[in-house]
Amino acid sequence: MTARSPLQNKSFRQLFIAQIIALVGTGFSTIALALLAYDLALNEAGRVLGIALAIKMVAYVFFAPIIGGFVHRLPRKLFLILMDVFRAIVVLMIPFISEIWHIYVLIFVLNLFSAGFKPVFQALIPDILNDEKQYAKALAYSRVAYDLENILSPTFAAIALLYLNYAGLFMINSLAFLISAIIVFGTLFPSDKTTERSGNIVEEVSFGIRSYMKTPRLRALFILYFGIALASSMIIVNTVIYVKDYLYLSDSTVAVLMGASGLGSMLIAFIYPSLNEKMIDKYITQFGVLILALVMFLMSYEPIYLFSLLVWFLTGIGLSLSQIPSGKIVNMSSSPSDRAAYFTAQFSLSHLSWFFGYLLAGQLVFIFGFSFTATLFSMIVIVCLLFSLLIWPNEENNKQMLHTHERFTHSHTHSHEDDHHEHDHDSDNEEHSHDHEHIAVTHEHKFFIDIHHQSWPK
Is the residue at 134 inside a domain? Predict the structure, then answer.
């Protein structure tokens, strides 16, 4: 642990542990939900699960920003505890449902509460960690916590299914949420701040998405994420169909195959730092997507258990290679003051990709079969990779970029500590706001889309 590790802060450490426990529990429910869908819908389970997970994405993409816009009006500790308790109650209700539409309703409600966690957690981190470097590391740790659900949960679920049925997995998830609530209750929170907002959240989300799409490397990353989402959706949505209807094996095999994918992902997580010393993130990401295209094609082959284990393992490797660098790519594309807006855009757009991925994976396998869908997805992933090769700029010479500013006048909060605000008046270097003019200038520096740079240089 380094001297500047955010984990040295007790409040952040407790929140981080609570988040990990809740996420691992959610991973148990993901596998249990697949088995429940098969019990209710049999060969239509992939379609049912695809719709359910698409509903989850609706809650994440559309309701997380709304919750983030209103949660500052509520006591944050009470809000987090209530979200955990409500999720625990909803999860306990799932094993008792008897109709497919019940799945859709409860999944929406469950993930509506889950969507409340991310904006609250993001809002707490800068209040708890005042140091910018600690805050940057905390953002990275938060991403690792979300990855843990995919890496560790299937392995634990496979062990649990040796002794329990899938209803037991839902109960474990409910217990995880309650433990998380207890940890949050015992965490010291900073004082809630009185803040007035008038469309600020909407403006920030809009700015982040517009800036994201104006940045060439991020446009390429977004296109790649559609291919990543298709490959990931084949694993999450259709593993249960593959095991039950093609391999004719037991419930525990579903968790074993998902665990194989998690093992491949975990392997890359361990070797990524050394790999990154030899390859830049652009090439690591594109190589991961290439692996995904190949394994999607291999999924179309005759189903054999041991061969399937290898394919699912390689899929985990491809998913990890293509997703781990994304946080760094978004971070290098944004200024510190705009980083939250860019990460919000990445969260929304990537989950939008999963929204379509879940729907396509479930519907196409139901209509055309597993082999056809895997082959089609392989071709789409290749097309996404080719587009990224065309529009992702050369990263070797991107540290400094020569560009020209036109003369313009505007007003916003600023200080005089950067090259864009060298003007004279009575105020000192403290932040302030007034109308000020920027003269026409050509200069060179690390380039981001922000309030002073509205388009990418030709």
Answer: yes
229 in a structural domain: yes
User: What's the domain count of the chain?
Assistant: 3
Which position has the token pair 């496979």?
A: 158
Counting every residue written for the chain, the total comes to 458
According to DSSP, residue 191 is labeled P
Nearest to 349 by CA among 144, 211, 198: 211
> Does 129 reside within a domain?
yes
C-beta separation of 393 from 217 below 8 A: yes
Query: What whole-number distance in Å separates Cα of residue 423 and Cα of residue 398?
Result: 29
Q: Which CATH number does the domain housing residue 279 bear?
A: 1.20.1250.20
Q: 153 with 24: CB under 8 angstroms?
A: yes
Report how far residue 27's alpha carbon sits from residue 166's, in angstroms, rounded to the nearest whole number.
Answer: 12
The interaxial angle of helices 10-41 and 100-128, nearest 10 deg, is 170
pLDDT in tens, 358-416: 889 988 998 999 999 999 999 999 999 999 999 998 765 556 665 555 655 555 454 55
The angle, 0 to 180 degrees and rounded to 10, between the axes of the packed helices 370-391 and 281-298 is: 160
Residue-wise pLDDT tens digits, 308-365: 999 999 999 999 899 888 877 887 777 766 766 677 778 778 888 988 998 899 889 9
